[in-house]
Design brief:
By secondary structure, the protein is mainly β. Helices cover about 0% and strands about 45% of the residues. It contains no helices and nine strands.
Length: about 110
């Protein structure tokens, strides 16, 4: 693990990228471009990354068919906490998508 290490997961026509920015801080940035057509723009969106709890203050707003760009800093973690882990996207108490980079599409 080194500062500047990156991992990412493609999901809903977009990408979520994780970058080690300090020894124990990882910055998440991303945007989804599809999958939110039938949801209210006021719906709260939660992202579960692996076993980590969802960020409390994630400024992720729905702009059908996708979302606005979002960013969040996780502390007391390293890039290994985000490598090859599933991401669950939940809105209005329903699962929008589960993206698991460890499962092959073949």
């Amino acid at each position: 693990m080194a500062i500047g290490d990156i991992t990412y997961t493609d999901a809903l026509g977009g990408r979520v990228t994780f970058t080690q920015t300090e020894d124990s801080t990882v910055r998440m940035v991303g945007q989804f471009n599809e999958g939110f057509d039938d949801l209210s723009q006021d719906a709260k969106v939660l992202l579960y990354i692996g076993e980590l709890p969802p960020p409390d203050y994630l400024d992720l707003s729905i702009n059908p068919p996708g979302t606005s760009a979002f960013e969040h800093d996780f502390t007391d973690v390293t890039i290994t906490d985000f490598t090859d882990v599933p991401i669950r996207i939940i809105a209005e108490n329903a699962v929008v998508a589960v993206c698991d980079p460890t499962i092959s599409a073949f």
